[in-house]
Write a structure and sequence with these properties.
Keywords: Repeat, RNA-binding. The protein is an alpha+beta fold. 46% of the residues lie in helices and 23% in strands. The chain has 5 domains: 100 residues, K Homology domain, type 1 (Ribosomal Protein S8, Chain: A, domain 1); 58 residues, K Homology domain, type 1 (Ribosomal Protein S8, Chain: A, domain 1); 66 residues, Ribosomal Protein S8, Chain: A, domain 1, CATH 3.30.1370.10; 63 residues, K Homology domain, type 1 (Ribosomal Protein S8, Chain: A, domain 1, 2-Layer Sandwich); 79 residues, K Homology domain, type 1 (Ribosomal Protein S8, Chain: A, domain 1, 2-Layer Sandwich). The strands form 5 sheets. Strands 1-2-4-3 form a 4-stranded antiparallel β-sheet. Strands 5-7-6 form a 3-stranded antiparallel β-sheet. A 3-stranded antiparallel β-sheet has the order 8-10-9, with helices on both faces.
């Protein structure tokens, strides 16, 4: 009414538009429409509409936000509208101040780290955003993280994300050998999983390395480190040196012997060849290591453990050893395949040990004997002939007694 008396158009005072937009009075009510800057309308709504509900409860005015146009309309009695208008201005001012202090931080940590930042079902990233009020954009594929918000809150959120990805503390332990790595892993990776679950420390061994990386809280890393060192100490084991020629006996056919010893004793065994000798490293508990030592020594000595229903028979090969072995062990392999037995030839002792079912062992021994017997008999005949030659006797030599015999 006052504006009309001054000759202005409705909504104008002195021919100028009020800073807060157009207002009009109708039957004791007043509507004020405010168009927030682009991107800001949702600040008046709040989570689950909490902000707009608070504005209405506080002012007694009605607030209506058109999300498409971004126009906020406040209607109600004059006094209520003024209160609501003041509240809206305060929100806009606070938002402007927040924007002025807002920064953006971007980091590239890799896909695995970003997955850890997000957490199962997004639990970690939600907790960080709720605690700091920042906005976090995580790109797993690119391995990047973008955090935006007030500078102090961005710094806090970045620390929280870093701890979720890498732990509060990072440390590493050099295990020194593949055996030690396998001890930490345990059967089916059970040991390393149990260590992580019981300590809350993240453990990782990069493929092809012997370095164990630890990440977590100070307490978790300290506990995990102590338990890992205790585990390695309890599985110290031993080392033994053998000739390179004995490595095959340790491995067995297709690695069967080595796997059997590891499975039956629960130890970890590694063989490292040198120029002339090999080092056999064994890790396991004291009892397990001793059992592994005994089994390794039997394998090196050519002994084969008998299974139920099996027998073993040993033969002297003598100079027939090479004939039984064959080129590259071909004859031994053929015997084992045809008779279903295990044949172990110890060249240095010129002996063979045949293991298997009684009937199969008997047939294999019989075949070996057919090869060995004529060679040994020829060798024996040669030795006897050599003795005769050395004694000076000969089948053509005439004795003194025969010298008086009648002749032709």
């Amino acid at each position: 009414d006052r504006q009309r008396r001054r000759g202005g158009r409705p909504g104008r005072a002195g021919g100028r538009r009020p800073a807060l937009g157009r207002a009009r009075r109708r039957r004791g009510q007043r509507d004020v429409r405010r168009a927030p800057r682009r991107g800001r309308p949702l600040i008046f709504i709040g989570k689950a509409g909490a902000t707009i509900q608070m504005l209405q409860d506080t002012s007694g005015a009605k607030f209506n936000l058109n999300r498409q146009t971004g126009v906020l309309t406040i209607s109600g009695p004059e006094a209520c509208v003024q209160i609501g208008l003041a509240e809206a201005r305060a929100i806009l001012a606070a938002e402007a101040e927040r924007k002025a202090n807002e920064i953006e931080e971007s980091v590239t940590w890799g896909s695995d780290a970003i997955k850890a930042v997000i957490g199962r079902g997004g639990s970690n990233i939600r907790a960080t955003q709720e605690a700091t009020g920042v906005k976090i954009d995580a790109d797993v594929e690119a391995g990047t993280l973008v955090i935006s918000g007030p500078s102090e809150m961005v710094s806090t959120a970045l620390t929280m994300c870093h701890n979720a990805a890498f732990g509060e503390v990072q440390d590493q332990v050099e295990l020194g050998s593949r055996n030690a790595v396998n001890v930490i892993y345990g059967p089916g990776f059970q040991t390393i999983r149990q260590l992580q679950e019981s300590t809350g420390c993240k453990l990782d061994i990069a493929r092809g390395t012997t370095t164990l990386k630890l990440a977590g809280s100070t307490e978790a890393v300290a506990e995990a480190t102590e338990r890992i060192r205790a585990l390695l100490e309890a599985n110290r084991g031993f080392e033994m040196t053998i000739e390179n020629s004995k490595v095959g006996a340790v491995y067995g056919k297709g690695g069967e012997t080595l796997r059997s010893i590891q499975d039956r004793t629960g130890t970890q065994i590694d063989v490292s060849r040198g120029p002339t000798h090999a080092t056999v490293s064994v890790m396991g508990t004291a009892d397990a290591s001793q059992r592994a030592r005994n089994m390794l020594q039997r394998a090196i000595d050519g002994e084969v453990e008998l299974k139920p229903g099996e027998v073993a028979e040993e033969l002297e090969l003598g100079s027939a050893t090479a004939a039984i072995i064959g080129r590259g062990g071909s004859n031994v392999a053929d015997l084992e395949k045809r008779h279903g037995v295990k044949v172990n030839v110890r060249s240095e002792l010129q002996k063979a040990r045949v293991v298997g079912k009684p009937d199969r062992v008997a047939k294999a021994v019989e075949e070996i004997a057919k090869v060995v017997k004529p060679i040994l008999e020829a060798e024996q005949a040669q030795r006897e002939a050599n003795l005769v030659m050395e004694s000076g006797e000969s089948a053509w030599q005439v004795s003194p007694e025969d010298d008086d015999a009648d002749g032709w």
